[in-house]
């Protein structure tokens, strides 16, 4: 007997023996549901035998036999009623437990989110890919099949999605491409650090999605519920089905604000802010501009996050403003980092440390924000130092800038495209899926070991476009991604440490060191960030113009 917990109300198991009933009782279960028809296996006890033993032990029972592979909508409804009526927790079983898990999934489809159902069953060891359309359809069997078919379907309309769509159209204008994204507005997220520092106006970082979709690309304004790679299909909310010949997945990251207890309740007030949200970045500047003394806290969660330097950029720009206002000596600045280093590429650390010293900021490594009380102006951190007991500490604040924990979106993490960590599983050079060869991924959601930045997506888009076109033409990959990412670290107003690096922390400068030495603060790098990068983003990257982003060709050694 192998009980596998799916929910607080239900655990399921492969076929049980009569002798297992006593153990089921001992484990605290109060009811048993059998979903296996009698006589399906030669060594299978009948339901009546199980029922007699269960009732003798004081357990309620229910018999809902299902022929393998033939779960009807009515069966799911019966299972749902049984789960409601029986004393809980309930123990369900069939030959392997799959039918019981399937019945639960369909019975809960109108109550729970699809991603929650898929996550629960996956964690119990059951793959619901075969019934995902029914789950998305509220547990009912869909009456239609594909609503549309395209040469290429792109999931995600952020920097990566629009850039790769444009790069594809530039290379092959006759391709039928659909881009799926439910958002009305597209944001230039790298600009939010500058908004929080009082340099950019927030409105300059937003444009309507419709104005940016490349000409000839169909915009499907919907959310994705699930993937069926075996059928080359994407399932949308509402159970619409979009089929593809080739798929590109790049929906970005999920900002998990709820993972910090109390954070959602106080964001945007009580001195609690974040440059990771469009509507909050102006509040960061409001707080910074209004502070003349007090304690300012800046946090960074465990990796991975969008732009690993963004949390400390907020600190540097804030501290520089207080320095210019002559109040820095009255400020108590603390940087609380869940990691153990200031920046992951050591070549840039000395310059950053000099600014930490200049601003008198206190570095607190291995400190992960876990809770916050806005009205009380108090934050709690778990200190998780190597080879030491976890301890919890608290600190007061007058202002706190929070970087939220970040994960892949739920519909990605529970999908058959994800690796064990929940990220799209790609070859780090070609960005092609390791298992499904007509699928590619780029941007923040895939598992290549690179920094998650817009600059990385700018380099990845041409690689994916070139390799996908090569695949259409029956060729092997022709372009490779070297892990390039860039993080313009705004250490003061007017100066930037321009970190550019690839896989393994190898430096990947775009300019000669006599022009911009990325390991040192530079006024020219600031000009690049303030004046040049926004138009490059809007007018080049998102329009398929690959300035300084031409894909690196695959070397002869890799082709062999």
- Count of discrete alpha- or pi-helical segments spanning 4 or more residues: 16
Helix content: 25-40%
Q: Structural class of the secondary elements?
A: alpha/beta
Query: How many β-strands, per DSSP?
Result: 28
**Could you say how many structural domains there are in total?**
3
Radius of gyration: 27 Å
What's the CATH C level of the largest domain?
Answer: Alpha Beta
GO molecular function, one term: FAD binding
Keywords: FAD, Flavoprotein, Oxidoreductase, Quinone, Transit peptide
Domain FAD/NAD(P)-binding: 150-263
Protein name: NAD(FAD)-dependent dehydrogenase
Report what the structure shows.
- Keywords: FAD, Flavoprotein, Oxidoreductase, Quinone, Transit peptide.
- Residues 4-110 form the Beta-lactamase hydrolase-like protein phosphatase-like domain.
- One of its GO terms (biological process) is sulfide oxidation, using sulfide:quinone oxidoreductase.
- Pfam families: BLH_phosphatase, Pyr_redox_2.
- The structure is a single chain.
- The protein has 560 residues and is of the alpha/beta class.
- The chain has three domains: 4-136, Alpha-Beta Complex (Protein-Tyrosine Phosphatase, Chain A); 148-253 and 408-484 and 534-559, FAD/NAD(P)-binding domain, CATH 3.50.50.60; 257-405, FAD/NAD(P)-binding domain (3-Layer(bba) Sandwich), CATH 3.50.50.60.
- 28% of the residues lie in helices and 23% in strands.
- It contains 16 helices and 28 strands.
- Strands 6, 7, 10, 11, 12, 13 and 24 form a seven-stranded mixed sheet that branches. A five-stranded mixed sheet has the order 1-2-5-3-4, sandwiched between helices. A five-stranded parallel sheet has the order 15-22-16-17-18, with helices on one face.
- α7 links the parallel β6 (146-155) and β7.
- It is globular and about 85 Å long.
- The mean pLDDT is 93.
């Amino acid at each position: 007997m192998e009980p596998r917990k799916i929910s607080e109300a239900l655990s399921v198991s492969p076929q049980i023996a009569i002798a297992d009933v006593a153990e089921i009782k001992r484990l605290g279960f109060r009811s048993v549901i059998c979903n296996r028809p009698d006589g399906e296996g030669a060594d299978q006890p009948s339901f009546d035998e199980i029922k007699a033993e269960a009732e003798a032990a004081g357990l309620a029972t229910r018999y809902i036999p299902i022929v393998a592979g033939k779960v009807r909508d009515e069966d799911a409804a019966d299972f749902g009623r049984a789960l409601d009526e029986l004393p809980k927790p309930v123990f369900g079983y069939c030959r392997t437990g799959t039918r019981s898990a399937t019945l639960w999934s369909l019975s809960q489809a109108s109550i729970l989110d699809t991603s929650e159902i898929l996550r629960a069953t996956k964690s119990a060891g059951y793959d619901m890919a075969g019934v995902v359309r029914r789950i998305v359809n509220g547990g009912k069997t869909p009456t239609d099949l594909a609503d549309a078919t395209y040469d290429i379907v792109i999931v995600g309309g952020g920097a990566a999605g629009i850039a790769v769509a444009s790069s594809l159209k530039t290379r092959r204008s006759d391709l039928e491409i659909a881009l799926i994204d439910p958002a009305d507005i597209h944001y230039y997220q790298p600009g939010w650090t500058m908004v929080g520092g009082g340099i950019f106006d927030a409105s300059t970082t937003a444009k309507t999605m419709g104005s940016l979709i490349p000409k000839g690309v169909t915009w499907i304004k919907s959310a994705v519920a699930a993937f069926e790679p075996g059928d080359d299909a994407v399932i949308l909310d509402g159970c619409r089905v979009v089929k593809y010949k080739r798929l590109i997945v790049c929906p970005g990251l999920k900002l998990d604000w709820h993972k910090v207890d109390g954070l959602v309740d106080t964001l945007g007030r009580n001195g609690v802010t974040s440059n990771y949200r469009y509507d909050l970045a102006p509040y960061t500047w409001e707080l910074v501009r209004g502070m003349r003394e007090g304690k300012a806290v800046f946090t960074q969660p465990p990796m991975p996050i969008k732009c690993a330097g963004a949390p400390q950029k907020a600190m540097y720009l804030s501290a520089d403003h207080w320095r210019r206002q002559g109040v820095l000596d009255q400020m108590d600045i603390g940087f609380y980092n869940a990691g153990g280093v200031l920046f992951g590429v050591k070549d840039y650390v000395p310059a950053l440390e000099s600014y930490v010293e200049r601003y008198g900021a206190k570095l607190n490594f291995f400190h992960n924000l876990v809770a916050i009380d806005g009205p009380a102006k108090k934050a709690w951190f778990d200190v998780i130092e190597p080879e030491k007991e976890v301890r919890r500490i608290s600190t007061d604040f007058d202002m706190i800038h929070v970087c939220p924990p970040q994960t892949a979106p739920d519909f990605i993490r529970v999908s058959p495209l994800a690796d064990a960590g929940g990220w799209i599983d790609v070859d780090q050079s070609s960005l092609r899926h390791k298992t499904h060869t007509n699928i590619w991924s780029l941007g923040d959601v895939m598992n290549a070991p690179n920094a998650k930045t817009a600059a990385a997506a700018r380099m990845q888009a041409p690689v994916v476009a070139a390799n996908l076109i090569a695949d259409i033409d029956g060729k092997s990959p022709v372009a490779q991604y070297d892990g390039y990412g860039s993080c313009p670290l705004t250490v003061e107003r007017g100066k930037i440490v321009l970190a550019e690096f690839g896989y393994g922390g190898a430096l990947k400068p775009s300019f000669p060191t006599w022009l911009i030495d990325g390991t040192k603060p530079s006024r020219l790098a600031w000009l690049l960030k303030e004046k040049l990068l926004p138009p490059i983003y809007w007018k080049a990257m998102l329009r398929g113009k690959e300035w300084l982003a031409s894909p690196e060709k695959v070397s002869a050694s890799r082709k062999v």
